Amino acid sequence: MIYKNLRVFTENGVFRPGAIEVRDDIIANVYFGDDVSPTVSGENLDCEGAYCFPGMTDLHFHGAMNCDAGDATIEALQTMARYEASIGVTSICPATMTEPVATLEQILSNAADFRDDQLRHPEKHTGEAELCGINMEGPFISIEKKGAQNEANILPCDAELFRRFQKAGRGIVKFIGLAPEMKDPMEFIETVRSEVNVAIAHTNADYDTALKAMKAGAKHLVHMYNAMPEMTHRNPGVIGAAFDCKDVNAELICDGIHIHPSVIRSTFKMFGRDRIILISDSLRATGMGDGTYLLGGLQLKVEGKHARMMRDGAIAGSVTPLPDCVRIMVKEMGIPLEDAIYCATVTPAKELGIDDRKGFIKSGRQADIVFWNEDLSQRFVLKDGN
User: Fold this and answer.
1) Does 100 share its domain with 24?
2) Are both 254 and 337 inside the same structural domain?
3) What is the largest CA-CA distance in the chain?
4) What is the reported pLDDT for 238?
5) Statement to judge: residues 32 and 78 lie in one domain
6) Residue 41 has what pLDDT?
7) Rounded to whole angstroms, what are the CA distances from 33 to 10, 22, 29, 104, 367?
8) Domain residue limits at 129
9) Is 274 among the domain residues?
């Protein structure tokens, strides 16, 4: 199938007039210019100037459609994967909460079972986002900055415990979060940095402590600005340290609630799109409605776009899916569409290490493709060419 009359998102992260040819589950060719070469024949579809870009990757979200990765069931992951694919998020890396050790092992084992079944029996998983890993947000975090995490399950950094988690999930853990002010964090980072992406998460660290951790090998910052000290002119904190370490990439939640639009604009000026990873941090209430839900065994209340913990009113996460975050960035925050798309496709794919087959509209890549209309409404989605 040839999809014509498109604005194609190029490898350089800009839109150009063109067309794409999809064969089976692969992008066979990409053509630029007003028309496809007359030598190319086959069934074609006029897309009327639609935006065409890679399927999005959400490497930090918890759930959707009243399901959560923490439910530790195949059915929950399948429901989440189908929902995400239907809205254009074709690759996912769900996040765990700070749960008891045995619960985390069960969650990871279940996720590995689901991942393996997707790989072995793709015919059973048509229309699902691909599970590319798990993002462990806890349990090695700060009590002071626990946010929506359960304080009772917070533990000190432990490399052997991490390896237990990795064994339970058969290598499925792609990110492990920690607060670098905890006991022996540098030893932990240096021990496991070749095995997993070490992330700074839910931390009360100062600039010097964070900088030391980053130089030791922590190269990922979990939902920057949230669950960490504020950046000030005398105490730049974790955010200042991340800015100074050019090989550290940062997650941003752009739902219009977690971070002020002015701060989002400033962050793009500071970090640039190559270092920003758009995440949703979305909860099981995503795609549902107002009500009371569970997160990591704790109750939260959802009203409109707001989700807050019932115990203390703290922001619990988001109920805004990743594509809507892109739309908010463009329509309400003044971020160029090309930059917003880049941070939802290219940077997360690179961070997850799947950019050899995802994240680009390029010949030979997986045909996970999103088509949007001029007003940024969804036109249709291809998952594996279907």
Assistant:
1) no
2) yes
3) 66
4) 98
5) no
6) 63
7) 12, 18, 13, 51, 21
8) 56-356
9) yes
Give the CATH number for residue 294. Answer: 3.20.20.140
Same-domain check for residues 155 and 281: yes
| Catalytic site residue from 68, 71, 255, 281 | 281
Task: For the chain, list residues with pLDDT below 70.
Answer: 34-41
Query: Does residue 362 lie within any of the structural domains?
Result: no
Q: How far apart are CA 386 and CA 383, in angstroms?
A: 5
pLDDT, position 40: 58
Q: How far apart are CA 180 and CA 200, in angstroms?
A: 7
Q: Are strands 26-32 and 15-23 parallel, antiparallel or unpaired?
A: antiparallel
How much is the pLDDT for 38? 46
Quote the pLDDT of residue 35. 56
Q: Is residue 224 part of a domain?
A: yes
Q: Are 258 and 337 members of one domain?
A: yes
CA distance 159 to 329: 38
Q: Is residue 43 part of a domain?
A: yes
Residue 38 contacts by C-beta under 8 Å, 6 or more apart in sequence? none
Query: How many domains does the chain contain in total?
Result: 2
Burial-class residue 225 by CB neighbours within 10 Å (0-12, 13-18, 19+): buried
**Count, residues in the chain:** 386
Residue 62 is predicted with a pLDDT of 96
Closest by CA to 226, choosing from 238, 235, 213, 217, is 238
In eight-state DSSP terms, residue 55 is P
Burial class (CB in 10 A: 0-12, 13-18, 19+), 188: buried
CA distances (Å), origin 382, targets 45, 84, 129, 173? 13, 12, 11, 27
Short-list 167, 233, 177, 181, CA closest to 201: 177
Write down the pTM of the prediction. 0.95
Is 281 in the active site? yes
- Separation CA 70–CA 298 (nearest Å): 12
Burial 335-361 (b: 16+ CB within 10 A, else e): bebbbbbbbbbbbbbbbbebbeebbbb
